[in-house]
Each structure stands twice: as C-alpha cells, then as structure tokens.
Specification:
Helices cover 13% and strands 31% of the residues. It is an alpha+beta fold and 266 residues long. Its EC number is 5.2.1.8.
Length: 266
C-alpha cells in the first residue's frame, strides 16, 4: 500500500468532488436516471440514490463518522466531468462530505470488499442539474478507536501500559533500552488499524532523537533493547491527537512496527 493520502484525480476538468460546474440542459440526465431506476437489479433509497450491487462484500458497514478507504471511477452523464482514483485508495469521512452526499450515503450501505454502482441525482451530487454515475469499491474502514483498542487488549500477546500504549514483542533484543535524551537508529512502518501504510523508513534505518517523536512512539522506544522488533499501538491522545500534520488522520490509532537497530553514540 502507499504511504500517502492520495487526493481525488479529476480526469477531464480540474477540481474535486466538492467543485461546482455550470448549469446545463438536464434532459438527458433525467432520462438516464429514469432508465437506470427501472432495471431489475437496482434499488432506490428514500433520498433518491440509485444503486446496484456488483460484489456484496462481507461484515459490517461503516458509520458516517468512520474513515472509509475507497476506489472509484465516476462521471457526469454528459461525460464533461469525471473522477478516478486510478486504482489507488482515497479516504472519505462521510459526515464531512458537503457535495456528492449520495456517495456519503452509499458508502454506509457497503461492507469491506463490496463494489457498487451508484447513480446520483443532481441534489445528491453537485446540485446543478447533472446526474452522476460511480462505480465504487469499499476496501476497508477504520473502526472506532476505543473499540479497536479494547478488542486488541484482549489478545494474549498484547501488553498495555499506564498511558494506554499497547505493544507486542516480535523479537526481543539485548542490552539497555534508550533514554529520552538518546539518539537511535530504527527501521519502522506506520499504518492505521486496517493496514493502510501512511509512513515508513526507506533505504535503510533512520536516525533521530527519542525526545523528538510523539509520546507513544517515544514510550515504545524506551521499552526496547537494541535488536528488538516491536509492534506498538498508539492511541490518539499519545499520538497526533485531533489536529495532526497533513497526511495523518485525526483521532486515529497509529500502528508502528519498529526495529531498534542501535542506540547512536554521541
């Protein structure tokens, strides 16, 4: 998986799903919507969203306040506006989608692995008369952080500290653990609880001061001896909180696999 959050890619015009386009004759759009609604495999919600199930998926569906990881291709009926993730993952938070509300509604009908075709009337899309059609795949979504941490703590190989940090020992090294004023050399991979990688060391170990990293990462390092490999689970309040740097989801549990290569001598 990629380590960065990929933005929406507009194929024909510039903009994003929240962009507006000029009014135009919607006769063909309304005809398309009506024709699609008459198909035997199409369902209609109370809002007017049309959908058909291509692949059903498995498990629960995301609530509007849960980050959903999706792939999609879509366009207006006239073909003037089109969107695609180009097989990469985009991240939606349904409750914050101010336009294309039909997609926010549609995501909540899906479960992980599902692929649906959606047809959005104008009032659930850009509001300018255009009807849109989307094929969307729900790759996964993040469950509530407290729910994840509660479930994770039940695993026999998980230890939880007083701060709420959880960790799993993969390989135990030897020697003394670093202190806060030490510098260390580490390999690491950072992901969310669904496995989506948002950051990782590349081309060999990276060096930094223990004191320079977020509290949960700092605490985890100080549990490890050189040569150790740990998987740590960092709650938001000892991570980046609700106002993280760009590319990190607010309030998310962060999962890091860390190899402490060595404590760097000054």
């Amino acid at each position: 998986m990629k380590k960065l959050l990929f933005p929406l890619i507009l194929l024909i015009t510039t903009g994003c799903l929240n962009s507006s386009v000029e009014e135009y004759d919607d006769t063909a759009d309304l005809a398309f919507y009506e024709e699609f609604s008459q198909r035997d495999d199409v369902e209609q919600t109370n809002s007017g969203l049309l959908y058909r199930i291509i692949e059903p998926g498995e498990g629960d569906s995301p609530d509007e306040n849960l980050f959903s990881f999706v792939r999609y291709e879509g366009s207006s009926v006239d073909g003037e506006v089109a969107f695609s993730t180009n097989e990469e993952l985009d991240i939606f938070l349904p409750e914050e989608m101010t336009t294309f509300r039909g997609l926010a509604e549609g995501i909540q009908l899906m479960s992980a692995g599902a692929e649906y075709e959606f047809v959005l009337p104008s009032n659930l899309a850009t509001g300018d008369g255009r009807v849109f059609s989307f094929n969307m795949e729900l790759d996964s979504f993040l469950i509530e952080p407290d729910e994840f941490l509660s479930q994770n703590a039940q695993n026999q190989d998980i230890t939880e500290t007083n701060s709420g940090l959880q960790y799993r020992i993969i390989t135990e090294g030897q020697g003394e653990a670093p202190q806060e004023d030490d510098a260390v050399s580490v390999n690491y991979t950072g992901s969310y609880t669904n496995g989506f990688v948002f950051d990782e060391s590349q081309d060999g170990p990276v060096q930094f001061s223990v004191s320079s990293v977020i509290p949960g990462f700092r605490e985890g390092l100080q549990l490890m001896a050189p040569g150790s490999v740990y998987e740590i689970f960092i709650p938001s309040d000892i991570g980046y909180g609700t106002n993280p740097p760009q590319g990190i989801l607010p309030g998310a549990v962060l999962v890091f696999e860390i190899e402490l290569v060595e404590i760097v001598e000054p």
